[in-house]
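User: Good morning. I'm curious how iron/sulfur cluster would be positioned relative to this chain. Could you predict the structure with it bound?
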Amino acid sequence: MFKEKEVGIKLPRNKERTENKPIEIKKPDEFLYFPVHGRLGRNAKIFVEVGDKVKIGSVLAIYYFGNIKINITSSVSGEVVGFKEVDTFRGIQDAVIVKNDFLDTEDLMEPLKDDATVADLVKQCREAGLIGTDNSLSTNKQFSVRKGEISYIFINGAECEGYSTAFSRVLIEYAEEIVKIAEYVRKIYDSKLAFITMVEDDTEAVEAINNEIKKQKLDKVIGFTIPNLYPQDDSGFLIRKVLKSYKTSESYSDAGVLFSDVSTYKAVYDAVFKGLHFKERVVTVTGDIVKNPKNLSMRTGTLISSLLKECDTPINSENNYIDGGPMMGRNINDLDSPIPKQSSTILALPPLKKRKESACVKCSGCVVICPVKLMPIKIATAYRKRQYSKYLEYNSLECMDCGLCSFMCPSCIDLAREVREYNNKVEELRDGKNQKCAIL
Ligand code: SF4
Ligand code: SF4
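Assistant: Good morning! Here's the predicted structure, ligand included:
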């Protein structure tokens, strides 16, 4: 349907250990930790005190991001027993600690009707604790656009990195719910089409979704497949397949797109049709040292160490623990931190051989491989020389952080990290100049 030159590389496939394992529900822990996305008293306001009783969906804190409010909600019922600093990818944050009473008490919300408006949907998702669940839903513009301003809905179930099977299992096991919510949201925004994106060799998921679309007799929900070439599952890539001119630095809503992943949409389904609060998400725990890899449905606020133990994973400081895949994932600093709300994979690998960096041999490999046609070595050089004003000339903000340049470099230069740090500095300088809050 949408033809363009296929870009990307085929990564080694390591999904065999979990792809046929049904989602298992992890028994919630006794203590859950809810980071409040910001330093206490700065970006977030905590609404509970030690001793307060909470239910599933109770608002523990509100995080303020520009003019949006993001509810931080409890995933269990119980009692607030304290506060703790936790080390997350967004830095050290205060977290509310809830002691689980294992009763799962919840005041359900009123499900939405068929004639719900955009405002109703946004309100339901906010109350469910869903706004801010993934990067795409964390911006105000993304969800709070007016009817008619969104042309395409994207529900991403494609995973081209070698290990994760969480999206695939959600597509297979919740095909009916995903297709139903796709059409529901499409209608609310009066969008032209809703795409459910999948990797073409994920045949069971593709079949499940396509059969469901036929069963529900929908002609505006499309099962859209991509080749298993990394990083074609990236949001920018997927959107560009439809809107040829889309730039990574452009916001989704400015491009007329609403983009999120299947796990988030499963939670949107639960909020819309069942009135449930957001409390759980499917995560694949896998990797060479994991003895019993699984697709686990776990409560938000669960510690990473608890997930690893559940899958019989040895824990020691020599191994590598990564949130995400081997290409785009981030090393986890503290295993006793709660798993981020948007995570879908925890990877545990044995110690990696250290690669020694040497001088650039000018092979052009990083330039040829870059899917958005950047010159990573030039940006890395500008980073080392602190030439931040060059970002426009080098178009550095278009970087999608895919890691291919580092992967490719024969001199073992970690170009992707240097480009990322260069862009972080550029954003920081621009935001300081404009006195704006940094974009997450
Ligand atoms: S990480 Fe490297 S290869 Fe990937 S988009 Fe950025 S500069 Fe290009
Ligand atoms: S891939 Fe590495 S060695 Fe080749 S041009 Fe880029 S930085 Fe230099």
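Residues 360-366, 377, 408-411, 413, 415 surround iron/sulfur cluster (ligand 2) (CB under 6 Å). The longest helix spans residues 415-434.
Let me know if you'd like a different ligand tried.
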